[in-house]
Amino acid sequence: xxxxxxxxxxxxxxxxxxxxxxxxxxxxxxxxxxxxxxxxxxxxxxxxxxxxxxxxxxxxxxxxxxxxxxxxxxxxxxxxxxxxxxxxxxxxxxxxxxxxxxxxxxxxxxxxxxxxxxxxxxxxxxxxxxxxxxxxxxxxxxxxxxxxxxxxxxxxxxxxxxxxxxxxxxxxxxxxxxxxxxxxxxxxxxxxxxxxxxxxxxxxxxxxxxxxxxxxxxxxxxxxxxxxxxxxxxxxxxxxxxxxxxxxxxxxxxxxxxxxxxxxxxxxxxxxxxxxxxxxxxxxxxxxxxxxxxxxxxxxxxxxxxxxxxxxxxxxxxxxxxxxxxxxxxxxxxxxxxxxxxxxxxxxxxxxxxxxxxxxxxxxxxxxxxxxxxxxxxxxxxxxxxxxxxxxxxxxxxxxxxxxxxxxxxxxxxxxxxxxxxxxxxxxxxxxxxxxxxxxxxxxxxxxxxxxxxxxxxxxxxxxxxxxxxxxxxxxxxxxxxxxxxxxxxxxxxxxxxxxxxxxxxxxxxxxxxxxxxxxxxxxxxxxxxxxxxxxxxxxxxxxxxxxxxxxxxxxxxxxxx
Length: 562
Hints:
Blueprint: H1 10-25, H2 29-34, H3 37-40, H4 62-73, H5 75-84, H6 93-99, H7 111-122, H8 126-129, E1 132-133, E2 139-140, E3 144-150, E4 156-162, H9 166-187, H10 196-211, H11 213-227, E5 233-234, E6 247-251, E7 256-257, H12 261-266, H13 271-289, E8 291-293, E9 301-303, E10 309-311, E11 317-319, H14 322-337, H15 340-350, H16 359-373, H17 383-396, H18 403-422, H19 428-443, H20 446-480, H21 492-525, E12 530-531, E13 534-535, H22 536-559
Parallel strand pairs: 5-10
Antiparallel strand pairs: 1-3, 2-3, 3-4, 4-6, 7-9, 8-11, 9-10, 12-13
């Protein structure tokens, strides 16, 4: 990313300075120094970033200091930390735990601004749109805030309104993050494995979806349709006539947080039945629909007086492609047969190996993991710990799992934990086995196998048809001499600059030596005009040589390479 795209204004340059200052203040000055920012932002020295804020020692751990950095830098960085808290395959456990503590401590914006946004979006005053509109804020976050309202037909709704100016703030911060990620990937060797640029790209897509309320509304509507056939689990209806990119209006549910067990018991509800219904719904989401609620914490699940489970807030949704669902099914079958080679091959098919690994050691670690959990009764199995152990093996061998696989694990752990809290004897295997059996039957059904075979047969036939023409075209290019082989070298620009710098200094030194020798010869020969009994040309030559020597020394010192 070109630097001019993010520092074309003084305001953006000051934001870069602020980010670097906060990093330095919390003890990450060594990373700032390794980014070689002076090369890319020469005028950054003028705002004092490198001179006024030397790093100082802090007693807090790096993970705590990293959380403090994100918290201090505001909404965009808090969101980044929240996204990273769901990537235990990338971050160490200490960072994941700290980033889970990040909260949107953002005060609500004034009611007048909220009403103005509603009026602008719908070209009418709020009291002309809604029968009632609560002035009190129900909830407030970095992206928007929520008000309760009533539609003209009497329906109770919640209205989520985007925070004014937040898109511009996030756009600037994401651009700066992308620029810093490129530098980190280029200059900080130990960070290359984590692929900072890809992390920022994924974060940018996530936060862009979150800022587009129409996208959240689409997911909410899709779940409302899918869950419409379920008798005990549902999700909010979307009122599209009152929804835009900046305002979303949803059906309001009145229920109790699923984590408030005593309140649920007071209503006479069967907690074991609630646990069963909850897991049945999520199992269908995972293995049948291939789309699931990726953040099922207690605040996003309400229970009505009649025991109906309400799923709300679809800002984070995971997807399982047909390929990934098939790979997971194959993995389960391989687990049942204790077939470690197949498990490793499935991971290789997913494309999560970024380096050469010792497969023998990996098989040994997986075998130890199976020995640890395979003979444990399922009702006593700690799903969260098992998932954490799987991630730890991935970290050991530098395996980066697909994002939706991580979301699946996170969602499954959270949903299972809720079920276990309501029913200590809950058996996950018994709950999911009917759905999983149906998936396996469908995966290996004669009809599906026939369709796959026909597809591969057609692909092979198509390839054979095109192959002679492709070979003929390649031979024609070879004969005409129009085939080129291109080679690229990573970071070659840096080496080219270094070679140019060395060559220039060598040439400079040769010229300097020639001037000194010539001046010495002139002084001894007394040729030309005289000054104080010495050759004036020789004196001028020595003066020029002295200036050149001083210039060369300053250039070497400024480069930091003696």
